[in-house]
# Entry
Amino acid sequence: MHELAVTESILNIATRHAEQAQAVRVTVVHLVMGQLSSIVDDSVQFYWDMISADTICAGAQLHFERKPATLQCLECNRVYTLSGELSDCPDCHSARLKIVSGEEFYLESIEVEAAQEPPRQDALTSIREDAIP
Amino acid sequence: MTTLRVPVVEKILSANDRLAEQNRARLDQCGIFGLNIMAAPGAGKTSTILRTIEALSSGTPGSPIALGVVEGDTAAVTIDADKIIAAGRPAVQINTGGECHIDAVMLSGALNQLPLDQIELLIVENVGNLICPAAFSLGTHANVLISSVAEGDDKPYKYPNIYRGIDALIINKIDLLPYVEYNLDYFRRGVELLNPGVLTFPLSCRTGEGVERWVEWLLRKVKRET
# Structure
């Protein structure tokens, strides 16, 4: 239900980083979502298409990488990957568990089209060429 | 034209988290303990707040406590805020305009309308919802969930995220236990899976049973005794 707010945040972050990189267009946005984060991909995509129109991110593809949830039993220290719903420790059946991963929800990177080569790479190339006797 | 990949690694809700930190700093500066109350619609959030106000007005050792309330609702109503004001305490109503939760920005705006220099306890009644409020930090010091027995005993299994981030759990409407199909052990097992050892306060806002223990805990928090 809060996918609109989430999508607005994604757009803000992507736009800010694209502008910093002096990009002309964002083509792909890579998102990482833990299995336990309650976000509906389809809804985010739906809102994205609407709110990114007329921005530097217009037409950019959203790429969702789902990370499985990993739990650790606080009794026997067994670490296991969750399949399906939350369940107790498969070894000792304790319910005292710690979530090791699966709650991630971040923007990992963006792919952008830049008007020109980034300045630093140009500089490095020219140094190397100068170094050739 | 070249294509390049720009590394970002930024939490999606980092803007909200940053604002939540600012809210927290503001509350700390004023010496206010902030409490975020979450629950499904009809679980008894407003009733719990009213019971708490009553107990913190007189009778409980350490009272009276000066408090203010922020009421969050998705529709443009002031039903809950009116009740708080009728109980003699300052209240601000947030109408989220269809949004399913209060976020840090909305709370920040509401704080501007409360006499922060005159209160020790801020109670935020979040929008009735078991999903979205869990994702948005507000900057409050404690998150409390109210689950009523009338909702059924399977709620931790069906809405796990909200159970994970809470500091205390109120089980409301225990006076209804003889009349509803509710297995308290099954419910508690689900909670234990998600939030091992979380404090629970079974109570009834209708009869007042169990309210004292909850208020004592809250009072210790407000007085920074634990």
Notes: The helical segments of chain B are 14-29, 45-57, 79-86, 104-111, 155-158, 160-164, 184-194, 211-222. Chain B touches chain A through 36 residues (CB under 8 Å). The mean pLDDT of chain B is 94. The two ends of chain B are 60 Å apart (CA to CA).
